[in-house]
């Protein structure tokens, strides 16, 4: 059986990955419910958050890389948000075609309204969890994310060795 070739750590990480996939699905559903009355989806909210929390204006491609998703999907949503007046494009001094994306006042207001809904929700969700346990989980997720990013970089640099 293929599972028998996995190390104990490999089995544990496989179980964790499956739980993270399930958690992601539930988070998206919960997020959709939380912000639906604001006219948002989890995906739109996530992109507004990436823009809002960015230290400086960034391109669509940069936001997609930071979020770990495909640029085309982020571009589609940002185009929709732009048409609705929530984000706008600014010239990028480092690249002629890759414009920078910033929140408009309407986008900032909408993002703040979403956060106002998220705060009591997340406080209830985290009730009874210890900060140390949360930090441990965050550390494991960060380490796995870093390893995946490093592997992706190696594959991008050596595409024939995949």
From TrEMBL:
Record-given protein name: MarR family transcriptional regulator
Record-annotated membrane-spanning stretches: none
Superkingdom of this protein's organism: Bacteria
Record-annotated HTH marR-type domain positions: 13-146
Pfam family, one: MarR_2
PANTHER family found in the cross-reference section: MARR FAMILY REGULATORY PROTEIN, TRANSCRIPTIONAL REGULATOR, MARR FAMILY
InterPro entries registered for this protein in UniProt: HTH_MarR-typ, MarR/SlyA-like, WH-like_DNA-bd_sf, WH_DNA-bd_sf
């Amino acid at each position: 059986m293929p599972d028998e070739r996995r190390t104990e750590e490999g089995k544990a990480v496989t179980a964790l990955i499956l739980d993270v996939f399930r958690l992601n699905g539930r988070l998206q559903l919960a997020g959709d419910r939380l912000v639906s009355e604001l006219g948002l989806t989890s995906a739109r909210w996530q992109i507004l958050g990436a823009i809002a929390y960015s230290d400086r204006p960034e391109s669509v491609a940069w936001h997609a890389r930071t979020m770990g998703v495909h640029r085309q999907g982020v571009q589609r949503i940002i185009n929709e948000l732009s048409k609705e007046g929530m984000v706008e494009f600014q010239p990028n001094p480092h690249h002629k075609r890759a414009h920078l994306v910033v929140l408009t006042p309407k986008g900032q207001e909408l993002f703040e309204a979403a956060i106002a809904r998220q705060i009591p929700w997340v406080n209830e969700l985290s009730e009874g969890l210890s900060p140390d346990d949360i930090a441990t989980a965050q550390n494991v997720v960060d380490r796995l994310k870093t390893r995946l990013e490093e592997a992706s970089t190696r594959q991008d640099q050596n595409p024939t060795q995949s």
